[in-house]
Amino acid sequence: MRHWPLFALRVTTPRLELRLPTLDDLDALADRAAEGVHEPGGMPFGVPWTDAPPDERARSTVQIHFRQWGTWSPDNWSCSFVVAWEGQIVGTQGMAGRDFAYTGEISTGSWLGLRFQDKGIGTEMRAAVLHLAFAGLGARHATSSAFVDNPRSLAVSRKLGYRDDGIEVHRRRDGAAQQQRVRLAREDWTARAGFEIHGLDPCLPLFGLPPRA
C-alpha cells in the first residue's frame, strides 16, 4: 500500500515474524485474547482489559489497532505488531514513540497468549522490536515497565540488559500497586544474529525520521 508502507514493515528472527496485522491476523489475535493471556486472578496490566468477557476482550483487541492506525502521526505513534510463530499468531508486541526524532526514546509493551508462554517467545519478540528501534531507527533508549508482582516481564527486561529506572505507584483494579520502570541504553544493547528488518526505508517519515538518501 503506497500511502501506508507500514503494512510491508516486518522484523524476522530465527523463529518469529513481527508485522502489522492483516484483518485475518487481527481475527487470530482476537482469538488469543479470548482464550486467555494470564492466569486467573492475576492482573499484569494497568488497564484491566482482560477482566472483560472473552467476546469483549476479542473486540477490544481489534479496536485498539484501528485506533492506533487512525491517530498515528510522526510526532506520536504506536506501532503494534502481531507475532507469528510456526504459522500461528501468538501475541502482540508494541513499540511507541512521542517526539521520537528529538528524544530518541521508545517504549514497549506486549502480551502473549497463555498457551504460548514459557517457550522463550516473549524474550525473542521484545528483542525483535529492540533491533528495529536501535539498528533500524537509531534509538538512544528503550523503556518498559511492569508491576513488581509480574516477575516474568521483569525477567525478560533484565535478560535483555535493561536497568532499573525507578518505582511508580498506580491504581490497579480497586487498589494501589507498585510498578518497576526499566531502561535500556543503546550502549547496553546487544545485537543478535539472525534478526532482520524488512521494508523500513519507506516508513521512516512516519516515524518522524528523514528518508534515507
Automatic annotation (TrEMBL):
Keywords of the record: Transferase
InterPro entries: Acyl_CoA_acyltransferase, GNAT_dom, Ribosomal_N-acetyltransferase
All residue ranges annotated as the N-acetyltransferase domain in the record: 16-189
Stored SUPFAM superfamilies: Acyl-CoA N-acyltransferases (Nat)
Domain of life: Bacteria
GO-annotated molecular function: transferase activity
Stated name of the protein: Succinyl-CoA transferase
Native source species: Microbispora amethystogenes
